[in-house]
Structure prediction request, 550 residues.
Amino acid sequence: MWLSVPKPDKPKILVVNDDANSLFALTSLLDQWAEQESYEVIAARSGEEALRQVLMHDFAVILLDVNMPGMDGFETAEAIHQRERSANVPIIFITAFVADELDRLKAYQKGAADFLFTPVIPQILHAKITVFVALAMKNEELKRQARQLSQRTTDLVSSNKRLLQEIEERKVAERQNHAKDEFLAMLGHELRNPLSAISSAASLLGLPAVTPDAAVRAKKIIQRQSQHLGRIVDDLLDLSRAMSGKILLNRAPVDVAALFGNCLETYRSTGRTADYDLHVQLDSGWVDGDVTRLEQIFSNLLDNALKYTPPGGVIDVMLELEDDEVVLTVHDTGVGIAPELLPHVFDVFVQGTSTLDRAQGGLGIGLSLVRRLAELHGGSVEADSAGPGEGSTFLIRLPRTERITESNQPMMNTIEQSKPNVLLIEDNDDGREMMAMMLSCYGYEVRHAADGLQGLAVAQEYHPGVALVDIGLPGIDGYEVARRLRADPDTQNIRLIALTGYGLAEDQRRVLEAGFDMHLVKPVDIDSLMKAIASLTQGAAEPAVATAKP
Prediction:
């Protein structure tokens, strides 16, 4: 469908004359050619009325009588040309006498474009009017084209901006996709290495000629690599929780100097810092924070320094107080950070240049997690480096809180108590068998069930002291198992521990609302499980959420 373009207004001619007869004669004469030349005629009988018409319309030309009572032609012309919009309107003065040179000069000074003397000769009037109307139409056409050109320019500029923005967004998306592809490749590598070691160790244990020493080493390899896999899964889950805002902080007053000092002692005792010149200065400072997450912040920064600093390098760890903040600085003399990478070191999936041997390892998500955890604590993180080979500095700022004086807590009763019998409800056959065997090795009497309904039946018959219940069970899930056990007077006092692969705040809430006493996240190492059972059976324990990290 064609869109109709509105026709431009016809050029207008203003005729100003105080004499009614003269005004009628001029307008009638002009009307004869109005249709042919495509213009419109407007009349005014005084200078004041002429000014009102100029305020309402744009004119191609004004025919102005010189001799008018009140405001004469010269005064009217001066007033018209003082207005910005009508400053360039051509004015043709009409006079009944032949003007001398002084009158002509005065007229031109007031903005006159020409003179006509009465009686007006029609042919001359027609010729002059035709020129000015044509000029007006041409000027209007030029203005229209200029507006179109300006609009076209604006559209092109806007289109260019959108195009540049789309190009930049495409580049960012391509970089992100490339980073994700590299991350998936790294994840595959990081998962296959421990899985390969576990598979080889398990095969070795099945060989008939395996020596006791080799079996012990194989078992240690399986345990160590299983813990490594658990840490990889924990990092991925923590990053997912951090990005979705679902990390739940268990805040309490913490002396970060003591906390970080304990972490450093663990690194020293395991020999991880033996090949480095480690300088430590920790000033006591308290924050309102989550102990586990603060340890993650410090461990990730220290791991990063150890990973990218060759043996023999220097690592400086400093904790100091600045105004209302506790400031942690970790500086190393390692490989440094390239200028183009520095602004992105805290982005997800970003990691320095890696090689095929992957000697440094890691998934490149540690620093992203550091930033998010620092922000959740109301703090911030900064990175600085002079470039490749110049080392790196990472700085964490956390809000200070008042020092808390802790009262001496009574020592836990460590007298050996009789072990409760245990019910294990788990649908994974291998997992159920191995956990039952481990519990038996620690002196617990264990019964087990493969689904929720079978577990309820065993609980009625067996009356265990503790039940370990997987959440994702066939038939009825672990939540329903807990609700039914709590609703039955014969089983309502069983201490319930939930076993699940989900550790978000929502999962923890659902577990406790269903009636569980504790929540353990798989994989659960045997030491954490023993502590959990002991905490529930040695005295009255409050419902709790346990973070079963290796």
Remarks:
- The mean pLDDT is 82.
- The chain has four domains: 12-120, 187-244, 252-399, 422-537.
- The first helix runs from residue 20 to 37.
- The two ends are 72 Å apart (CA to CA).
